[in-house]
Amino acid sequence: MKTKQQQRIELVCDYISQHLDEPLSLETLSEVACCSKYHFHRLFAAGVGLSVTKYAQLARLKRASFRLAFEHQLKIIDVALEAQFDSPEAFSRAFKRTFTQSPSEFRSKPNWPNWHSQFEFSLPDKKVCPMNVNIVDFKAQPVALLTHLGAANTLMNTAAQFIEWRKESGFSPVKTSKTYGIPYSDPATTEDHAFRFDFAGSITSPITENPQGVRNGEIPAGRCAVVRHNGSHDTISDTVYYLYREWLVQSGEEVRDFPCFFHYLNLIHEVDECDLQTDIYLPIK
User: Fold this and answer.
1) Domains, the chain
2) CA distance linking residue 54 with residue 41, whole number of Å
3) What's the pTM value of the predicted model, to 2 decimals?
4) Out of 40, 151, 233, 276, which could bridge 192 as a Cys pair, Cβ 3.0 to 4.6 Å?
C-alpha cells in the first residue's frame, strides 16, 4: 500500500505533466500535495530524488524531445519557447546537459537508450543509520531574529550581523540565550535569490529597534519530532532528510505549517567541528 507521501508525490507529478505550459510555483504544487510549502520541497526530493524544479524542467524537456523527434516541421526556437526557455541557446545547453545530445543532434538521430536512462529515478544513496527520534511538545519561544535572504554561501555575513547585535544589545547573549536557525527551504534545491534563513536567539522581553535589523518573532508551540545531529553543520542535511525520508514515512505523522528548525546546543567558535551538537525539530500535527 502506498503511503500518504507517495500518493501526494504522484498527484504532484501528474499535475506537472498536465500543466507544463503554466507557472509551477512552490505554492501551487504544495497546495496540490496538501502539504505545507515549508516541507513540500524536502518531501518531494526525498521521494523522487530530484528537486521539484528539476523534475518540472525535465518534464518540459521530455515533451520537447518528442517535438524534436517526431515534429520536424517545428523550429527549434519554437520548441525552446514552449519549454519555457528564454532563448534557443539556454534550451540547447539544458537539453545537451540532460541528454548528452544537442537538440539538432537529437532530432537527426535520437539516442533513445540514453534518453530513457534520464527518467530512471533513484533516491540519493545516503547511508544514515537509524536515529533516536523523540516527539516533544515544544513551548512557544519568543525570539529575536534576523533574516538572511540570498545564497547560502553568504550566510556567515548575516550570522556576523546577528552576533554583533547580540554583543551590543545584551538582549540575547550567546552564553545564556538559546540559539536557533530556521531554514525556510533547502539551499541545495532553492535558487539563491529565494533562499531564506532566520538566525534567532531566545529572549525574555521584546527587543527594541536596532541598526542591524533584528526584530521580534516567535517559534510557535506544538508537537515536534526531534533528533540530534552530531558533528559538522555541513552534513546536517543528511539528518534532516532522514526525518523526511525514513521517520516521517514510517511514523505516519503529518507535518505542520512551520519549517523545520535547528537548536544549536553549541557553536563552532566554542568547540571543534566534530563535537558540534544540533537538535533538529520537525513540526508535526
Assistant:
1) 4-117 (1.10.10.60), 134-283 (3.20.80.10)
2) 11
3) 0.75
4) 151
